[in-house]
Design brief:
118 residues; alpha+beta; 4-stranded antiparallel β-sheet; 2 helices
Length: 118
């Protein structure tokens, strides 16, 4: 599970600081950030889960909407079994392990609502 670090962001200048607030005329509000590489890992996991769901959905749809011809029930059943096995054993990349990414481990993902126009 991802650990969260609470930080302060100035609503005036956009500075991000933790664990203490700034001194001066700035006004701060609490925001949450995640490291970019953790965010990318979760996105990769979500993509893999989506691909798997789509493959399984295709098998379920075929099962739900296919009526075999007379005398072809067993052959149809075996074909659906094979499709289901392929969908279940689709090459699963290791999305759980850490991987190299373009982001630095110390780089944070800043929500779009927080990003400033420069």
């Amino acid at each position: 599970m991802t650990d969260y670090v609470k930080a302060w962001e100035c609503i005036g200048c956009g500075k991000i600081e933790a664990p203490q607030t700034c001194i001066g005329v700035c006004q701060d509000r609490k925001v949450q950030f995640v490291y970019a590489y953790e965010h990318e890992e979760v996105l990769a996991q979500a993509r893999l889960a989506q691909q798997r769901a789509e493959a399984l959905d295709a098998v379920v749809r075929q099962l739900a909407f296919t009526t075999p011809r007379n005398g072809e029930w067993e052959r149809s059943y075996r074909a659906l079994q094979e499709q289901a096995r392929r969908a279940l054993s689709a090459p699963a990349r290791d999305a759980m392990g850490r991987r190299e990414s373009a982001a630095n481990p110390g780089e944070a993902v800043i929500p779009q609502s927080v990003q400033r126009q420069q």
